[in-house]
Specification:
The complex is a heterodimer of chains A (229) and B (306). Chain A is of the alpha+beta class and 229 residues long. Chain A folds into two domains: 2-45; 64-228, no CATH class. Chain A has helices at residues 2-27, 32-36, 38-45, 89-97, 103-129, 132-136, 138-150, 153-169; strands at residues 64-75, 78-81, 85-86, 180-191, 209-214, 218-220, 227-228. In chain A, strands 1, 2, 3, 4, 5, 6 and 7 form a seven-stranded antiparallel sheet that branches. The longest helix of chain A is centred in the middle third of the chain and has 27 residues, at 103-129. Chain B is mostly helical and 306 residues long. Chain B has a domain at 1-142 and 156-187. Chain B is built from 16 helices and no strands. Chain B is globular. The mean pLDDT of chain B is 92. The chains are: A alpha+beta (229), B mainly alpha (306). Chains A and B meet through helix 1, helix 4, helix 5 and helix 8 of A and helix 1, helix 2, helix 4, helix 7 and helix 9 of B.
């Protein structure tokens, strides 16, 4: 029994060393060994041991994000366009008011969506730089961009979330009570004064610089399928 | 020496039990928040598209775990069941069985709508398997008499079971160290961290500007630079200094200050609590008993003088 226990212990220690070596390797920045073992690492770590400890690092979040959405409804001959609605700021304010609030989760959802869209947009811009056809043909490039963006998790989630905003905005009316409803959104990435200008008024938007990612219109429907207009 | 390693888990039962309670309580809190909007978060027409959930389950190779979420009521039932298992695990009822069920349900919820999750959920996900295996059911539990039937098997395999529990406890401690080591490692690659201004941005950004004091505090460059470097150096030193008795207390107390500060000024609550909860495992049962003796002595002295 004693030897059995010792053997078992040694096997366990070996398993832990292998486990944490693989986890550690997957957490290190890109390097030749990680590159060489990328498929093995991915298949071991995902989905049960996946972890990421990069909150606020290497570059901490340093811009304020805003998510605005707008609906266009068609009912017979009547077309209506709503004002832009800020769907992120109310969650932030709710989170600030209440220490224990579900708004935390929803604001996290919004942030994840916006980050996904911004990252996808940047990835696309980088890819276009390397594609001579898309660089020359702006129409093709726009179509490819819309197709690419419409398939990102972030975009699909924002459009899906818009169903709930729509219900709230139209006092519980369902999307299906209109002939068709389209939604578009804009993400503002606003840079508040940098550290060297920290004495400037933080709340004065004149001291900010803005970046915008705008979507085209997406047709929304109750079952979550979205289409470009 | 080897014997003491086999029984390592038995020397941390108080800390492990406290961590189990903290973890279960946070899961329960999350489920209470999710429950009223379970349909919107996890239902068939939830804010994260159902089709994307199926894709994620498929590419993760765990399609067999796909829970269908056919309507909002089932989503609510699923959240309620997860809450029940978190209560069972909190009280150590059905021990590893309830822990395993909780892990599976949290995994499904993560896949269904990962966009709502934060760092604390990631900590729970990677520590829970080790916590399930470790000896974390000795304190703050409700004992069911019928379970005693299994004691015979326990006695027969006690040596091997102790071995598994101890290795799981060591793994849990290493995993906590990994969190701090890799977050510090990433910070040392960021220019804003290296030039000492990162805290200025993290405390000012709208999402984390929790108090009206954030702007005032970050106007002071001494505060910004000191808190930025303190965060980096503390995180980097934690995985090394927490193992030594001489430095453990200091590093843990500084950690509590850091996380309470993050909670107050940035309102990152779950992450702060789960990390502080994990610190209890680094303290041995003997140290808790010593502390208890010390408190008893102080109370005695205090009552004599008054």
């Amino acid at each position: 029994m004693k030897y059995l226990k010792f053997t078992f212990f040694l096997i366990g220690v070996g398993a832990l060393i292998i486990h944490f070596s693989l986890i550690g390797m997957s957490l290190f920045p890109d390097n030749p060994i990680k590159h060489q073992l990328k498929y093995e690492l991915r298949s071991y770590v995902n989905p049960f041991f996946s972890q990421s400890w990069n909150l606020f690092s290497p570059t901490p979040i340093n811009t304020n994000m805003t998510l605005l959405i707008q609906f266009k409804t068609f009912n017979g001959a009547i077309t209506d366009t709503t004002d832009w609605v800020d769907i992120y700021q109310p969650l932030i304010e709710e989170k600030r008011r209440n220490f224990w609030s579900p708004a935390q989760r929803l604001s996290k959802f919004m942030t994840s969506c916006m980050q996904s869209v911004i990252e996808s947009s940047q990835t696309y811009a980088q890819a276009v730089k390397e594609d001579t056809v898309l660089l020359r043909d702006s129409v093709k490039s726009k179509l490819a961009y819309e197709f690419y963006m419409s398939n990102t998790f972030g975009n699909q989630s924002i459009v899906q979330y818009s169903h709930f905003v729509f219900k709230k905005l139209f006092l519980g009316q369902d999307l299906n009570s209109f002939d068709s409803v389209f939604v578009r959104y804009e993400i503002f990435d606003s840079k508040f004064p940098r550290f060297s200008k920290r004495k400037l008024d933080y709340f004065d938007l004149k001291n900010y610089t803005f970046n915008k990612v705008a979507s085209s219109y997406f047709k929304t429907s109750g079952n979550g399928i979205t289409k470009n207009k | 020496m080897t014997e003491s390693i086999y029984l390592f888990s038995n020397t941390r039962t108080i800390g492990l039990s406290i961590f189990r309670v903290v973890l279960s309580f946070l899961v329960l809190k999350n489920m209470i928040f999710y429950f009223p909007m379970a349909g919107e978060l996890f239902g068939p027409n939830a804010i994260f598209p159902y089709g994307d959930y199926l894709i994620l389950m498929d590419i993760s190779g765990v399609g067999f775990l796909t829970f269908p979420f056919p309507n909002d009521l089932v989503a609510r039932f699923f959240v309620a069941t997860t809450a029940i298992f978190s209560v069972l695990f909190l009280f150590g009822i059905f021990k590893r069985i309830s822990g395993l069920a909780l892990f599976a349900m949290l995994f499904i919820l993560k896949q269904r709508n990962g966009f709502i999750l934060d760092g604390s959920d990631n900590v729970i996900e990677v520590t829970l398997p080790f916590l399930i295996l470790a000896n974390s059911y000795s304190h703050f539990n409700y004992r069911i008499p019928a379970i005693k039937k299994l004691e015979f098997y326990k006695d027969k395999f006690r040596g091997i079971l102790d071995c598994i529990k101890s290795l799981a406890t060591i793994a849990l401690l290493i995993q906590i160290c990994f969190v701090y080591f890799f977050t510090a490692f990433a910070k040392f690659q960021g220019s804003l961290w290296l030039n000492g201004t990162a805290i200025y941005y993290t405390m000012r950004v709208e999402e984390f500007r929790a108090t009206k004091w954030n702007i005032w505090l970050t106007e002071n460059h001494y505060f910004v630079v000191f808190s930025t470097y303190f965060t980096m150096l503390w995180e980097l030193s934690f995985p090394f200094l927490v193992w030594f008795r001489q430095t453990r207390l200091l590093i843990l107390i500084l950690g509590i200050f850091l996380h309470v500060g993050i909670w107050i000024f940035m309102r990152i609550d779950n992450f702060s609590w789960i990390m502080i909860g994990s610190y209890f495992i680094f303290v041995s049962n003997a140290e808790y008993l010593k502390f208890q003796e010390f408190l008893k002595y102080r109370f005695k002295v205090l009552s004599r003088t008054t």
